[in-house]
Design a protein that fits this description.
Strand content: 5-15%
CATH class of the largest domain: Alpha Beta
Helix content: 40-55%
Strand order of the largest sheet: 1-2-10-7-8-9
GO biological process, one term: L-cysteine catabolic process to pyruvate
Shape: globular
CATH architecture of the largest domain: 3-Layer(aba) Sandwich
CATH topology of the largest domain: Rossmann fold
Structural class: alpha/beta
Modified residues (N6-(pyridoxal phosphate)lysine): 86
Subcellular location: Cytoplasm
Cofactor: pyridoxal 5'-phosphate
Distance between the termini: 76 Å
Catalytic activity: L-cysteine + H2O = hydrogen sulfide + pyruvate + NH4(+) + H(+)
Radius of gyration: 24 Å
Oligomer: single chain
Number of strands: 10
Number of domains: 2
């Protein structure tokens, strides 16, 4: 087919310069394009530098006398610059958006979050000098809200957890911004094959331990992205390790796993911030999970208190969920006469929950009695008394 220039409709292609054969003969890169390209290159370099400095966190090994033959490890994600596991996710989401061309110089960033992801995203937004707005339930802990504002972010609140998605989409459209959407992109923004992701870091750090290949990795689910990364990595590397995901009250994940129905919902929002969702998030992949359990909120918070005392520092509620699930797996192993190692995560610091999970008045107002679970957990890890 002969291509004609609009200004010379009868010219022969034989006499035209090669570049003029294209319908759009504008300059390849304008000054603005070159400036944007330079910003993108600099932004990726900054994010990559943060990854080199902070990606590998400690693997903590406390001693629990009641669990002979079972070694317990905690991957301490609270030591990231923004204090939580979500630091990894936020960096991946930023790189994903920038490399896809969706995040550019001056782009307003919007996220739907229960707090910790928004804290980390506010940090990176400030790092790159980009405006950031977090859409969160009004019940989000004051400590997280203060952290977001400290990093220069703004907060918009909704009454119900299920309302954060539509409000984030609305604000992004209104501001001409970009919705980071952790619940959709968490499982694809991270390279699950390795590249120093959390799974690769865990298994590398376990080399040289008595039971180098964990029998189980135990993980709670917020977006589902971390469990997806770990489950995929285990399969990709051909490992014998199994993955147990622990769900909480007021969450749709466990029912979706049990029934295979991704349309299940939960009308009440989770009380354990950062995990449990009112709907099944796109990043939640049941097929990579080997076993799933659901635990009461009182068990999560009691486990959080017990572990904080044993580590001599406070951990958050989702870490308590992880710890209780790990104790349940350990009890199953002991009943079967099995030995091995178990790995879970310290997701964030308990300092973010001083006014909630560590406040006796808050616990009383929410009808949460920790003592029965606390006694059972302590008896198990100290004396091996299986009451879980």
């Amino acid at each position: 087919m002969t291509i004609h220039r609009p200004s010379q409709p009868h010219a022969s292609t034989d006499t035209l310069p090669f570049a003029d054969l294209c319908l759009d003969c504008s300059a390849l890169l304008s000054g603005a394009d070159l400036k944007e390209q330079a910003w993108t290159k600099e932004a990726i370099a900054l994010l990559t530098g943060d990854g080199r400095r902070s990606a590998d966190t400690h693997l903590v090994k406390p001693n629990f006398p009641g669990l002979p033959g079972i070694d317990i490890y905690f991957k301490d994600e609270s030591t990231h610059p923004t204090g939580s596991l979500k630091h990894r996710l936020a960096r991946s989401l930023f790189l994903y958006g920038i490399c896809n061309g969706a995040i550019r110089q001056g782009t307003t960033l919007v996220e739907a979050s229960s707090g910790s992801t928004a804290v980390s995203e506010a940090y990176f937004a400030q790092f790159l000098k980009l405006p950031f707005i977090a859409v969160m339930p009004r019940s989000t802990s004051p400590e997280k809200i203060a952290a977001i504002k400290r990093f220069g972010g703004r907060c918009a609140f909704v009454e119900r957890a299920a309302e954060i998605y539509d409000e984030a989409i609305r604000i992004a459209a209104e501001t001409g911004g970009y919705y980071l959407d952790q619940f959709t992109f968490a499982e694809r923004a991270t390279d699950w094959r390795g590249n120093n992701n959390i799974a690769e870091s865990i298994f590398d750090q376990m080399q040289g331990e008595v039971h180098a290949a964990p029998a189980w990795v135990v993980m709670s689910a917020g977006t589902g992205g971390t469990s997806a990364t770990i489950g995929r990595y285990i399969r990709y590397r051909g490992l014998d390790t199994r993955l147990c995901v622990v769900d909480v009250e007021h969450s749709a994940f466990y029912d979706a796993y049990r029934t295979g129905n991704r349309d299940v919902t939960c009308a009440t929002g989770s009380r354990i911030e950062g995990i449990g969702r009112p709907r099944v998030e796109p990043s939640f992949l049941p097929a990579v999970i080997d076993h799933m359990i659901k635990v009461p909120d009182a068990a999560s918070i009691a486990a959080m208190h017990v572990l904080s005392e044993r580590l001599f520092r406070r951990v958050g509620g989702s870490t308590g969920t992880n710890f209780f699930g790990l104790c349940w797996i350990a009890a199953c192993m002991m009943r079967a006469g099995e030995t091995g190692s178990l790995v879970t995560l310290i997701c964030d610091s308990g300092d973010r929950y001083a006014s909630t999970y560590y406040d006796p008045d808050w616990l009383k107002e929410n009808g949460i009695d920790l003592d029965p679970y606390r006694r059972r957990i302590e008896a198990f890890i100290d004396r091996g008394v299986d009451g879980l």
